[in-house]
Design brief:
By secondary structure, the chain is mostly helical. The protein has a single domain (6-29, 65-146), classed as Globin-like (Orthogonal Bundle), CATH 1.10.490. Helices cover 69% and strands 0% of the residues. It has eight helices and no strands. The protein has helices at residues 6-18, 21-35, 52-56, 59-77, 82-85, 87-96, 102-119, 125-142. α1 (6-18) crosses α8 (125-142), α2 (21-35) packs across α7 and α7 (102-119) packs antiparallel against α8. The longest helix has 19 residues, at 59-77. The two termini are 21 Å apart. Bound molecules: protoporphyrin IX containing NI(II). Protoporphyrin IX containing NI(II) binds next to α4, α6, α7 and α8. Belongs to the globin family. One of its GO terms (molecular function) is organic acid binding. It holds the Pfam family Globin. Keywords: Heme, Iron, Metal-binding, Oxygen transport, Transport.
């Protein structure tokens, strides 16, 4: 089981309590689709992903970004058992959606950039370390049910 320091717990709680899930989710997912275009293949039904402007303005991308952030919120609220919290979501991404698990890390990195740009100088190396650790556990747990 992952051990969390008090600083890590309070930092993660603080970051997510200040995040606007609609804005951050949309920005992180749009960034992922622009920077790593192969991730677009999973979102064929989202319509126009033709270029960066289309992706940023696509309401289905925005809506799904919010869904992803609410998914992350479950991990924030269950930091001591993220693995079990994501068991079902991992099966879904593996068996139904067939999402390559390498992509989880890419989206996590995009979210890190979104959080960093929002926090500015408050995004200290210690805060980044806590967020990276949290997202690494999320990524690992989402990849758990792949075989
Ligand atoms: Ni992901 C659906 C959470 C990364 C492709 N995804 C979901 C749902 C949640 C979710 C929650 C809704 C499940 C349901 O309907 O029951 N996804 C997460 C989280 C991460 C993540 C927490 C990582 C941080 N998903 C990714 C990545 C991709 C991805 C990296 C592809 C590149 N996800 C999908 C697709 C769907 C999806 C595709 C289904 C969308 C739809 O509307 O049908």
């Amino acid at each position: 089981m992952v051990e969390w320091t008090e600083f890590e717990r309070s930092t993660i709680a603080d970051i997510f309590s200040k995040l606007n899930y609609d804005v951050a989710g949309s920005n992180a997912l749009a960034r992922c689709l622009v920077v790593y275009p192969w991730t677009q293949r999973y979102f064929g039904k989202f319509g126009n992903l033709y270029n960066a402007a289309a992706i940023m303005g696509n309401p289905m991308v925005a809506a799904h970004g919010t869904v992803v952030l609410h998914g992350l919120d479950k991990a924030v609220k269950n930091m001591d058992d993220i693995k079990a919290t994501y068991a079902e979501l991992s099966v879904l991404h593996s068996e139904k959606l067939h999402v390559d698990p390498d992509n989880f890390k890419l989206l996590a990195d995009c979210l890190t950039i979104v959080v960093a740009s929002q926090m500015g100088s408050a995004f200290t190396p210690q805060v980044q370390a806590a967020l990276q650790k949290f997202l690494a556990v999320v990524v690992s747990s989402l990849g758990r049910q792949y075989h």
